[in-house]
Design goal:
homodimer; Arc Repressor Mutant, subunit A; six-stranded antiparallel beta sheet; 17% strand; DNA-binding; DNA-binding (chains A, B); repressor (chains A, B)
Chain lengths: 223, 223
DNA sequence: TTTAAGTTCCAGGCAAACCTAATGATCATT
DNA sequence: AATGATCATTAGGTTTGCCTGGAACTTAAA
C-alpha cells in the first residue's frame, strides 16, 4: 500500500521535525499553527490524518511526535531541500538568500534516482550553503559541534562561521553587507556586558560591532 | 494582475500546442480528451476557463487555438521540460528513456532565473536528448529540416538520426537494443515495397531490418 | 474554583479537477 | 429536407485537499 504524500503533508512533517529540534519533545498544535500561519483547527485535522498514516504519534495531551517512518520522510524532504540549495548556489550561481523559495518547490519532486545522482554531482556535500547539515541517504545527519557566537565568553577566542540560525533574506543580506561568509574566521575582540553586543574581527579585517541578536544567529565552531 | 496557472492548466496548454503542430489548425475538444484520457465534458470546462484567461481562442465550432500569450506559456513549459531532460541525461547520467516522467514534474517549477541559469550551465543546448528542439528564452525554436526515415525512397541514401517521434520507454529501449543512438549515421540498403520495411546499416555495422513503424518514428536529416 | 490557554468538534465553505447522463448542435448523405 | 452519426455542452454530482469560525471541552495554574 503505497500511500501518496501531498506537498502539504510533507510540509507539516518538515515543520514538526524542525520544531522538535528546537523545543525538544512533543509538539503542540498551536506552535504548528503559528509557524504555518494557519488555523489551529486545520492543524488538528491534519495531525489526525498524519496519525492515521502512522507518520506521527499524536494525542491531545502530549501533542505530536514523528514516528520512525515520519522522521525518515521528514529527513528525506530536508535532504532534498538542502541538496537543491547547494546545487543552486554551487552550480547555478545563486546567492544564499535567493535559494529558499525555489528549494521549497524542488524538494517535492519525487525521484530517488534524481536525488542520488544530484548528491553525487555535488560531491556528497555534508552542509548546505547556510551551513545546515544535509542528511545522507539513510537519514544520518553529519555531526558538528557548533554553538552560537553569542555564547562565547572569552575575548580573544577564535572561531569559524559554519552556519546561520536565521535564514531570512534580510539577515543574509546583512551578512553580505558586512562581508561575512561561511567558513570565515572570526576573532572575538570585546564583549559588552550590558547588551551582549560584541566587537569582532572577520578574516583579520578591521573590527566591527555586532548586536547580540546577530551573534545569536551566527553558528560557529572552534578553530 | 498576475494570474496563477495550475499544473493542469499548463498541461492543457502543452497538449494543445503539440496537437496544433500535428493537426495544423484548431483543435477539437475530443482530441484533447483522448490525448489526456479524460472525459470530453471535463475538457469543455477547462477550455472555457483557459478562454476566460485569454490563453486560448475557443468556440464550439472551430475548436481551440492558442493565443500569443498561451503559446508563449506553452513554449516556456516545453522549454523547461526539454532543458531538464537535457540536464538529467547530460549531467546526471540518466538514460533517454528514464527522463520524461521526472521532467513532467520539474517543468512546473516557477523561477525564471533558475531556467536561465540551467540553460547557461548546459551551454545553451538547441536540442534535447530525444532530438527535440528546445525553444530559446524568447520562445524561438531552432530550425532543422528533419524528415521521418520512412520517407526515404532511394536505396543507398545516407542520413543521420537527429530525433525520435515516439518517446515511449518501449521504443527507446528498442533503439538501445539495436544500438541506434542520436547522431548515428544510417545508410538505407533496401526498401521493401509491400510493407515498407527497410534494411539499414547503422554506423557501418552489419545491416539489420526495421519495420515501417520504426522508420516512421526515426527523424533524420541529410548528410 | 475560577480562569486562561490550548485543543477539539462541528458545521460549513471553497476551489480544482474530474465524472455521468441527458440534451443540443452540426454535418454528411441520402 | 430529413436522418443519423458525431461531437460538444449542460446540469448535477463526487472527491480531494485545504481552509474558517465558534462552541465546547480539558488542563494546569492562580
Amino acid at each position: 500500500m503505497e500511500q501518496a504524500i501531498s506537498f502539504t503533508e510533507e510540509n507539516y512533517l518538515k515543520t514538526i521535525y524542525s520544531l522538535a529540534r528546537q523545543d525538544k519533545g512533543k509538539i503542540a498544535n498551536l506552535s504548528i499553527a503559528e509557524k504555518l500561519h494557519i488555523n489551529p483547527a486545520t492543524v488538528t485535522e491534519m495531525l489526525k490524518k498524519l496519525n492515521e498514516k502512522n507518520l506521527i504519534d499524536y494525542n491531545r495531551i502530549d501533542g505530536a511526535a514523528l514516528t520512525p517512518q515520519g522522521e525518515a520522510l521528514a529527513l528525506k524532504v530536508i535532504r532534498k531541500h538542502r541538496l537543491w540549495e547547494t546545487f543552486l548556489v554551487n552550480r547555478l550561481s545563486f546567492t544564499w538568500d535567493e535559494v529558499h523559495e525555489i528549494a521549497e518547490q524542488l524538494e517535492h519532486i519525487q525521484s530517488d534516482k534524481l536525488i542520488r545522482q544530484l548528491d553525487k554531482l555535488l560531491g556528497f556535500p555534508k552542509f548546505d550553503p547556510h551551513g545546515d547539515p544535509i542528511p545522507d541517504k539513510n537519514g544520518q545527519l553529519p555531526q558538528s559541534q557548533t554553538f552560537p557566537l553569542v555564547s562565547v565568553e572569552e575575548p580573544g577566542t577564535m572561531v569559524k562561521l559554519v552556519g546561520v540560525a536565521n535564514h531570512t533574506t534580510a539577515f543574509l543580506q546583512y551578512l553580505d553587507k558586512i562581508k561575512l561568509s561561511l567558513n570565515d574566521k572570526i576573532e572575538v575582540k570585546e564583549i559588552h556586558e550590558f547588551d551582549h553586543s560584541m566587537g569582532i574581527r572577520i578574516a583579520n579585517r578591521t573590527a566591527i560591532m555586532i548586536s547580540s541578536e546577530v551573534a545569536r544567529n551566527l553558528l560557529v565552531s572552534n578553530q
